[in-house]
Amino acid sequence: MSLTVLVTGGSGFLGTSVVRGLARRGHAVLSADLRHRGEAPAGVEQLTMDVTDADAVEAAFAHHDVDVVVHLASIVTPGQDSDVDLEYAVDVTGTRHVLDACLRHGVRRVVVSSSGAAYGYHPDNGAAHGGWLTEDDPVRGNHEFVYSRHKRLVEEMLAELRTTHPELEQVVLRIGTILGESVDNQITALFEKQRLLKIRGAESPFVFIWDTDVVGAIERAVTGEVTGIFNVAGDGALTIDEIAARLGRGTIAVPEPLMKVVLGVGRRLGVSRYGPEQTVFLAHRPVLDNTRLRTVLGYVPEKSSAEAFDAWRVARGL
Length: 318
Description:
By secondary structure, the chain is of the alpha/beta class. It is built from ten helices and eleven strands.
């Protein structure tokens, strides 16, 4: 069955692949973004849309009969000109505008890219499951970590709508650390140091997911009948020590109190945008169990966490 699918953030890193993948499957795709790169692929209509502008969102929906929305628009890696107000406007207010439009125009299903960061960075993460977080664990995104807080707020919004508007089907994807051949961001920068930084006493495993597996999970969420919340991660996890060994490098283990001091000084001197609150990111990463992804949504990642990291490492020549 051919669907009309509107993808917010359609020209972004994930959006570009999602748009092309859905179009190849024969769906009519509306790629909505602030700006677009190049001409639209066959079967794709490009819409200029700012999710922070409620009128612009309304106009996009008013002129098209949309069956499914894939909401990817968010600020994952803030630019130099970004600030907390802009990030909130995109991540939280923008999501509200999109969901309100879905309800006004009778959209059947919404697929939302959330994040493992929605669980937050807490020392007791996954305590009931040997350190692994399942979709039944609470969403406790840290107030001091903007991206984590915003993902929590968005998930709270979605939870309320599941009660007040059950007619809007939801698939919420809590995505782990994405790797791909071209991925280069603040997380992968940690792996390109001569010695990898770690908090003393914290294994802080990473769960990775290859970018094409994220796209595959989104496509399954769009076209399938299943609804719900799903962790999107490859099988297994890698600790910082295991990552360092794969790179042939060592680690630097720093006590958390000292790391807080160093980050605090660095931010005051203007040499780092990160402050002492960021130590939780290094010490208590959410480790995602993907059982429900595999058995309920029915998507089995092609690459495990280790395989995704190795593929990224080779692509980067490391």
